[in-house]
Specification:
Elements (H helix, E strand, L loop, with lengths): L11 E5 L6 E3 L2 E4 L5 E7 L2 E6 L6 E3 L1 E5 L5 E7 L3 E6 L6 E3 L2 E4 L5 E6 L1
Antiparallel strand pairs: 1-2, 1-12, 3-4, 4-5, 5-6, 7-8, 8-9, 9-10, 11-12
Length: 114
């Protein structure tokens, strides 16, 4: 199935942990804090989130995700292609161009915004 890139929609580059190369897509399939499966896109600088199996979703400036060790983190877009990450309960976080996340099958992936 080909995903169509809409106006002002960002693309992601995904790389599986340990892989030498990856792929591009307009979506990211990720696990959120409660372990449920969600899909997100970035359009006009905001995340469009849809829960697996849902017909519609919601828009937000943050994405709550599980990182490789299973801990809960929140990311926000900073500029067009950087993230600000904050661990659940932490007062401050850090910026990076990547996010290490768990996908629907619990495998570890890294994404960056192109």
């Amino acid at each position: 199935q080909r995903r169509v890139r809409g106006p002002n929609m960002s693309r992601f580059h995904h790389t599986r942990q340990g892989a030498g190369s990856g792929h591009e897509d307009v979506i990211v399939n990720y696990k959120t804090w409660d372990g449920s499966n969600w899909t997100a896109r970035i359009q006009n600088g905001r995340f469009l989130h849809t829960k697996q199996g849902a017909a519609s979703g919601h828009e937000d400036v943050i994405l709550n995700y599980k990182t490789w060790d299973g801990s809960n983190w929140t990311l926000r877009l900073v500029g067009g292609n950087r993230f600000h990450h904050t661990k659940e309960g932490a007062a401050s976080g850090h910026e990076d161009v990547i996010a290490n996340y768990k996908t629907w099958d619990d495998s570890n992936w890294t994404l960056r915004v192109l």
